[in-house]
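Thread title: Can someone regenerate the structure for this chain?

I was given the following input by a collaborator and told the matching structure tokens would be attached. They weren't. Posting the sequence so someone can regenerate them.
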Amino acid sequence: MHVTCTIGDCNGIGLEVWAKAIQAGNRHRDLRHVRWSLIAHPRTVAEYAQACRLPLQVTADGIELESTRVSLIPCTTYAPIRWGYSDPLAARLAIEALELALRLVQQGNADGIVTLPIAKQVLHQLGWRYPGQTEFLAHPYPDRIPIMLFVAPSLRVALFTTHIPLRRVYSAVTSEALHSFVRHLQCGLAIDFGLERPRIALLGLNPHAGEGGVLGKEEESLQPALERLRNEGYSIDGPFAADAFFGRRRWKEYDVIIAMYHDQGLIPFKLLAQNKGVNVTLGLPFVRTSPDHGTAYDIAGKGLAKADSMRQALLLAAELVRRRHTQDMFPRKKLAAN
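Best answer:
Regenerated them for you:
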């Protein structure tokens, strides 16, 4: 089983938390049974390690981190380290690493991808047209609906809308869209987490879940989808007023919570996850995880970054790859041409 990791933005904390997580994971058997690789430019990794004082050595064919050895898949783009700045070279390196990772899984030469954090603004300045890494990894599969799921011990939050401006959320919240989303969510949870009939909670879009239509009609417009889903056997409750739902700890009663927009789900998730949250993409033909934080430019290069979320991302990737292998859900590797 092979899981590859992308370098992300080399001027942030990504490589630091990755190295710390790999080092800590060497003592965890669930990481040892996976073959790990890092997609990066060797010189960039070496300079990062030296500047950040990481116990990491780059050799001709890999990375040595104390007693751990990780394969290195080289990129052609070299980006010098500039702590706290996402310059065009760092962005080009991040894009190339993502492209190589996607090629590996498409060819059946990797089972999963762990993406390190990127800075989106400079990528878009270079013409990168994807809202985020999730959308990039999903673009070759137009028949699939990728779902952004955030996972922590005893808590899962799925985002109904993801990287779109808040003003566009209202038009995206429709009965048909919700019906399709829940069906794909349950399918993804069954494949990757073994939840055949999860208990699902739906948060309302408006304050107080619309207050019976006084504060918004969107919740009422979702009722046809909810009735249809329940008639089809789905276990879904709501819409709930989001503040009371989390304030009264009702999230403990459910396997997954559907948040209607990005911050509605991620603010309580990050508070409750306590630096152990993982971003998982459901619905792809390969496993994808990521830490639930960004580049953290303000502490980049200082050796202060905590690797808890990164370590959980590696562990969960290994667990999901093992589960999919058990179910024989990966495409066979392509045979080399004669």
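The radius of gyration is 20 Å.
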